[in-house]
Write a structure and sequence with these properties.
alpha/beta, 8-stranded mixed β-sheet
Amino acid sequence: MNNIFLSIVIPVYNAASTISRCLDSIWCQGLDEAEYEVICVNDCSTDNTIQVISEIRKTHNNLRLFSNTENIRAGGSRNRGVREAYGEYILFIDADDYFHPGALKVVCDYQKKYGLDILMCDFARHTIMNENDILVHNFKSQEIMTGRKFLIVNSLPYAPWKYVFKRSLMTDNNVFFTERVSCEDVDWSHKIAFFAATMQYQPILLTHYILNDSSQTSVEYRNPNTVFHRLQAGKRVTDLLQLYESEAERKQILAVAKATLKNGLLFLNCLIISPRKKRDAIKDNVSCDIQWGRVMNFIRDYPLLYSWFSTIISPFFRLAVYTKRNLFGR
C-alpha cells in the first residue's frame, strides 16, 4: 500500500440508496486503481448500507470498509478514515454526492505536478431533477499562496470535500474534526489552512452537491442539538483568534465566528424549548471578551431576557423560516 497517492474518505450513514452512485462516479474516472483507495466509514447505519458496499467490494480491491461501534457522525468518521488511510493526499466526499466525470484525474495530475499542501476545487449545487455544472465559488485569485493569505484573499469555504490536501496536514498538526456534532467543518477548514504553506484555488468542477429536502441541513432549525452545535462551532471559531496573529487574519476569523453565531442565534428563535436551556447555550458560546455588535451584545448581556422573548416568538419564527425555505430554498 506504499504507492497509494490518493485516499478518498466517505463517511456513510444510511446511504444504501445513494452510495452506489457515489462509488460509480469514482470507478469511471480512468484512474489506475493501484494509485488510490476508497475508504467507507460506516457510522452505525440501520439500513443495508454495509451489504451494498460489501457487494461492490467484490469487484474493487481498493475499496476498504470500516464500521464504527458508536455513532460519531461525519466528523468522527472522517477522522477514522484519515487515520486508516495510506494515501499521501486525502479527498472527502459525502455518500449522497458524486464526482464530476474526469475530475479526479485532473486533480491528481495537478497535485502530482505542483505538490500543493491544499488544492481547493469547486462544486455545483443542484437537485436530482435539476442538474447543472455552474461553479459556486469561482474565485478570481488563482495564485499559489499560504493558507493564511488564502483566508484573506479568497475566504475559506467550510465544506471539507472541496479540498485535496496532504494527509500530513491533519496527522502532523492534530487537525481533526470535533466528533459527535454537526457543523464540525467550519473551524476545521480554518485550522487546516493555518498550517498550509501552499494553497491554491482552481476552477475545477470536482463535486456535484445534491440538495436533499430530507437532509440534516434542511431541518436543522427545528433540532435543538444542531442549533446548539452551530453555536458551539461559533465558539470554536472564536477560539481560533488565539492562533491567527495579523489584524487582517483576525478580522476574517472574527467575521466567520460572528456569522456562525448569528445563524445559531437565528435558529435558536425557532426552538420551542426551555428559555433556561437557550440562556445556557448563549452564555456558554458567545464570548464576553469580544464586541459583537449592538444586537448580539444585547443577547450576550441579557441572555435570559432574550431567551424568554425568543421562546414566545418561536412558533411564528419557525413558520417564517419554513415558508421562506419552501418558497425560495436554503
